[in-house]
């Protein structure tokens, strides 16, 4: 019955590789360079387009606007490493980082600002923690969205092993291995692994409740019934 174990292991390994390749980071931090003057002007334009908005009280100056927007949500950039972060983010406009990377690990809450003192003024970055369920709304670099891909040589070696396990003959097949029941079991092994993978997919991605999650579970159900049909051959 080694052919049974062989196909089950290969099927599970193939699905595991796919899940690992598409495994997302649970949380990322989005950093954006802040142009307060531009934001104040945008607020003024919205007030002119919607007369009702002009009734709301607005800061009278740029300094008051900045103070109102950042009140209670500012972290001082005291770590020298912030200088490089500011330089990178300001060059790109928007950047994404892992929350555990220094100096971001000290940032409190889900949303706020980082202020870097410069002479008598300050430069600001806006930060926001993004959960995996919201990744689809942002243009996140693949190497950050799927952090396990940096181990691509290991994935390549594992994929080669899976292909070799399928291609390399294991001696002369016997009556059992060549029977229709054995053929059906081979298909059942892969379909059952596919069912497990498609069902686990929404939970791995944290997308439960979305249309894609329901579609994934539905396809997994098709695989499940296909596996049952294969067992009946």
Give a verbal description of the structure.
- The protein is α+β, with helices and mostly antiparallel strands and 233 residues long.
- It has 2 domains: 2-23 and 146-231, no CATH class; 27-142, no CATH class.
- It is 54% helix and 14% strand.
- The protein contains 9 helices and 5 strands.
- It has helices at 2-21, 36-49, 62-70, 81-92, 142-145, 152-167, 175-178, 180-205, 211-231, and strands spanning 27-33, 74-76, 94-97, 111-118, 121-131.
- It has a 5-stranded mixed β-sheet with strand order 2-4-5-1-3, with helices on one face.
- A hairpin with a 2-residue loop joins strand 4 and strand 5.
- The mean pLDDT is 79.
Helix tally equals 9
Which structural class should the secondary elements be placed in? Answer: alpha+beta
Average pLDDT works out at 79
Number of domains: 2
């Amino acid at each position: 019955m080694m052919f049974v174990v062989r196909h089950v292991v290969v099927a599970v390994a193939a699905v595991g590789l796919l899940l690992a390749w598409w495994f997302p980071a649970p949380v990322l931090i989005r950093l954006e360079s802040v142009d307060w003057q531009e934001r104040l002007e945008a607020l003024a334009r919205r007030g002119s387009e919607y007369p009702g908005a002009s009734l709301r009280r607005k800061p009278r100056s740029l300094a008051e606007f900045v103070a109102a927007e950042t009140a209670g949500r500012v972290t001082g950039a005291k770590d020298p490493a912030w200088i490089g972060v500011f330089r990178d983010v300001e060059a790109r406009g928007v950047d994404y980082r892992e929350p555990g990377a220094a100096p971001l690990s000290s940032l409190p809450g889900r949303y706020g600002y980082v202020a870097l003192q410069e002479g008598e003024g300050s430069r600001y970055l806006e930060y926001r923690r993004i959960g995996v369920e919201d990744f689809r709304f942002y243009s996140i670099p693949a190497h950050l969205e799927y952090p396990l891909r940096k181990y691509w040589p290991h994935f390549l070696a594992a994929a080669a092993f899976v292909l070799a396990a399928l291609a390399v003959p294991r001696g002369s097949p016997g009556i059992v291995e060549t029977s229709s029941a054995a053929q059906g079991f081979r298909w059942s092994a892969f379909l059952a692994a596919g069912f497990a993978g498609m069902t686990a997919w929404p939970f791995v991605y944290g997308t439960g409740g979305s249309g894609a999650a329901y579609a994934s579970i539905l396809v997994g159900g098709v695989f499940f019934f296909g596996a049952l049909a294969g067992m009946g051959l």
